[in-house]
From TrEMBL, chain A:
It is found in: Cell membrane. One of its GO terms (cellular component) is plasma membrane. It comes from the Bacteria. InterPro entries: ABC3_permease_C, Membrane_comp_ABC_pdt. It comes from Microbacterium testaceum (strain StLB037). Keywords: Cell membrane, Membrane, Transmembrane, Transmembrane helix. Coiled coil: none annotated. This is Putative ABC transport system permease protein. Residues 78-192, 357-477 form the ABC3 transporter permease C-terminal domain. Its main location: membrane.
Automatic annotation (TrEMBL), chain B:
InterPro entries: AAA+_ATPase, ABC_transporter-like_ATP-bd, ABC_transporter-like_CS, ABC_transpr_LolD-like, MacB-like_ATP-bd, P-loop_NTPase. SUPFAM superfamilies: P-loop containing nucleoside triphosphate hydrolases. One of its GO terms (cellular component) is plasma membrane. This is Putative ABC transport system ATP-binding protein. Keywords: ATP-binding, Nucleotide-binding, Transport. It comes from Microbacterium testaceum (strain StLB037). Transmembrane segments: none annotated. GO terms for molecular function: ATP binding; ATP hydrolysis activity; transmembrane transporter activity. Residues 13-252 form the ABC transporter domain. PANTHER family: ABC TRANSPORTER RELATED (PTHR24220:SF685), IMPORT ATP-BINDING PROTEIN (PTHR24220). CDD domains: ABC_MJ0796_LolCDE_FtsE.
Length: 487, 254
């Protein structure tokens, strides 16, 4: 990501073939970072879970502590899972983008005699190396972080419990991250198979190959998951009117419907992105930005869904806790116990800060996608400069492109977060009596935590600005002559 | 053979004592060495020369894409030497058209979007007159049924015709064509050259074409030969055979 900035864009205009090598390495930096974040997060969370578990089990007065330990373990596994899932999405997209930029080099290898499969294996092997490096960094960082934080936790909360930090299980996230990065690189390099040797010698024309928008089978599975999941979610909400156990059903429905949504991202996101594109007006730069965001629908959709996931989770916890709070306040006919409220707030705050990690990973991916997009479009940017696009217009175009993706994903994430958060609160608390009648069922109104929405909006603006820094610098440094230089 | 109308005919573009050097010291290269030429309005000029003769550099400087080391450059009567990047951008947008070897269409825009792009870059939609002109261009380029196609759905010849329509749409002072037939088969290449020649002949469009193909240059009203950064010859229309013969003799003589 930011490593790109230092490179002078138009040093000596070396031939494309040699230029594509360092370019590829640059894109890989983001994958290392993503792997490091997710494996470090996993390591840290496992250590924290183990520590909390040891503490709870050591407290003999706590009733039902085994089930609490199990719940904490499940929650942290889910959080790590989400972070790794987002990381895998980011890595897949990164590799797909890198492969697209390396087409000529791959074509040359094919021309000389490499098989498509061996080329793909080569790309995937890079994924393995990148994943292993990132995972190792994350493992060391996460362990060091845990080692630093445990004494703090001991003193601050006065917890006195024996807990050995270094356990074999800490390696698990690193191993999983290495394997998922490898798999993601493999998935992202599918296009290598389509590169023909001819592309090394054919004219300089850049083919705007449309990326396959997912298989039919995947779309059907996505549709079934989404519809089925939504039905189960609704059933959970209905069941919640009778019993708090509805939340378990709703939880399953939520997971299924959101998985369907992520799988079907390539179907859902482009129309939504198109709507956002209209909002930016009809100026040339706005129109070009809107088209660019949809140039590779698969990449943009995947990236966007990563951000959507992060925002949805954050919003969901905020809405659920706020809604629950209001139900508790009105059902109790007054202020519920302060301890309960503060416990809920603490829980929501911890969960929100933990899912933030996924949002950060998605943001890294977004920055990388935009940067690689600009690097691979040098010729076209040079053309626009030649035809009369002034540098500020180019800057605005790239900024709008970034805004396009962030605004769309955040808006969708907020909407989904409110729906899921409300469904969670409703299914959990629908059977709680509320005055004046104190009779079930209760309808919980979705309470929007405006503070969170505000923070998310500010974070979006920040993310857009940060995501656009490196690409705009690169883009405005392109000179008109780049369009004329044959390669 | 030198043409003597340099001072009388109105010029679409001209350069005076243009010098451009790359590098310094031992590795110093004179890409252009005291070049003075003018491109007459309404004429189709071919700029020829072997690789490294400075023809691309000359075009870059004349089109306001690159700055010369010394000397002056004009588009019409406007001196472009020392103009700011923004002024040059606006000048290119309104008064210069470009046709490239590799077509260089914007892949995300359809044919019509590419043709009207120069207008939209300027933040205005084409006037009624410009619209009529675009319609006529689309018709004469045979792109009528393709307005909603994207570049990757078109053949090379069709893409180049879109690029020519884009360049002609704004009625620029001058169109620069950089090896416009370099990526085309010979039949399609001839069609493209005929379109350029017709634009010059019928609509008085000034065109400067950089090429090393004698066949392509034979379509031009005037042929300028460059070698080692200097103007070696400046002749009226020539047959491809004569151009080839000249190039061979200068090659042998060098």
């Amino acid at each position: 990501m930011s490593a790109v900035v230092e490179r002078p864009v138009r040093a000596s205009r070396p031939r494309r073939l040699t230029r594509s090598l360092p370019r590829a390495e640059r894109g890989l930096g983001a994958s290392v970072l993503v792997a490091a974040i997710s494996s470090g997060f996993g390591t840290l969370l496992i250590a924290a879970t183990g520590f909390i578990g040891a503490w709870l089990l050591a407290a003999p007065y706590l009733a039902g502590r085994e089930s609490v330990v199990v719940v904490v373990a499940i929650l942290s596994a889910l959080l790590v899972g989400v972070a790794m899932f987002v990381a895998a999405i980011v890595t897949t997209t990164t590799f797909a983008t890198i492969v697209a930029g390396r087409t000529r080099q791959i074509a040359l290898m094919r021309l000389i005699g490499a098989s498509a499969r061996s080329e793909r294996v080569r790309v995937a092997r890079q994924g393995l190396v990148v994943g292993a490096i990132g995972a190792a960094v994350g493992l060391i960082g996460g362990t060091a972080g845990a080692a630093a934080l445990l004494p703090v936790a001991r003193t601050v909360w006065g917890i006195d419990v024996e807990y050995a930090l270094l356990q074999p299980v800490l390696v698990a996230p690193a191993v999983i991250v290495t394997l998922t990065t490898w798999a993601a690189a493999w998935a992202g390099s599918r296009r290598v198979l389509e590169v023909t040797p001819l592309e090394a010698i054919s004219g300089a024309t850049e083919r705007n190959r449309s990326e396959a928008v997912g298989g039919r089978a995947r779309r059907i599975v996505a549709g079934i998951l989404f519809l089925g999941g939504s039905l189960v979610l609704a059933a959970g909400v209905a069941l919640g009117l009778l019993s708090p156990l509805g939340v378990v059903v709703a939880f399953v429905g939520g997971i299924f419907s959101f998985t369907g949504l992520s799988l079907g991202a390539t179907v859902i996101m482009p129309p939504v992105l198109r709507v956002t594109g209209r909002l930016f007006g009809r100026s040339a730069e706005a129109r070009l930005a809107a088209e660019n965001a949809l140039r590779y629908p698969e990449r943009s959709s995947r990236m966007a869904i990563g951000v959507v996931m992060g925002v949805t989770l954050v919003t969901m916890f905020a809405v659920a806790s706020q809604s629950a709070r209001e139900v508790l306040i009105s059902s109790g006919g007054g202020e519920p116990p302060e301890e309960l409220l503060s416990l809920m707030d603490t829980f929501a705050a911890i969960m929100m800060s933990l899912v933030d990690v996924s949002a950060v990973i998605a943001a890294v991916g977004l920055v990388n996608l935009l940067t690689l997009g600009v690097i691979q479009r040098r010729r076209e940017l040079g053309l626009l400069r030649t035809l009369g696009f002034a540098a500020p217009q180019i800057r605005r175009m790239v900024l709008l492109e970034a805004a396009h993706l962030t605004v769309t994903s955040v808006a969708l994430g907020l909407l989904l977060g409110v729906v899921y958060g409300w469904a969670g609160a409703q299914s959990l608390l629908g059977s709680v009596g509320v005055p004046p009648e104190f009779s079930s069922p209760t309808f919980v109104l979705p309470a929007i935590p405006w503070a969170t929405v505000g923070i998310v909006a500010v974070a979006t603006a920040l993310l857009t600005a940060v995501a656009a820094v490196a690409p705009t610098r690169l883009a405005t440094a392109v000179s008109p002559i780049d369009a004329l230089a044959g390669d | 053979m030198q043409q003597n109308s340099f001072d009388t005919a109105p010029m679409a573009a001209r350069v005076q004592n243009l010098t451009k050097t790359f590098g310094a010291g031992e590795s110093r290269v004179h890409a252009l060495d005291d070049v003075t030429i003018g491109l007459r309005r309404g004429e189709f000029t071919a700029i020829m020369g072997p690789s490294g003769s400075g023809k691309s550099t000359l075009m870059h400087v004349m089109a306001g894409l690159d700055a010369a080391t010394s000397g002056r450059a004009f588009i019409g009567d406007t001196e472009i030497t020392g103009l700011s990047d923004l002024d040059l951008t606006v000048l290119r947008r309104s008064r210069v058209g470009f046709v490239f070897q590799s077509f260089n269409l914007v892949p995300t825009l359809d044919v019509l979007g590419n043709i009207t792009l120069p207008f939209e870059l300027a933040g205005r939609s084409p006037s009624a007159e410009a619209r009529r002109r675009i319609d006529a261009l689309v018709e004469s380029m045979g792109l009528g049924g393709r307005l909603r196609h994207r570049p990757h759905e078109l053949s090379g010849g069709q893409q180049q015709r879109v690029a020519i329509a884009r360049a002609l749409a704004t009625q620029p002072d001058l169109i620069f064509a950089d090896e416009p037939t370099g990526n085309l088969d010979s039949r399609t290449g001839r069609e493209v050259l005929a379109l350029l020649a017709a634009a010059s002949r019928e609509h008085g469009q000034s065109i400067a074409m950089v090429t090393h193909d004698p066949m392509a240059a034979s379509h031009a009203d005037r042929v300028i030969f460059l070698g080692d950064g200097r103007v070696m010859a400046d002749t009226p229309r020539q047959s491809a055979e004569a151009i080839s013969a000249y190039m061979l003799s200068s090659e042998v003589g060098a």
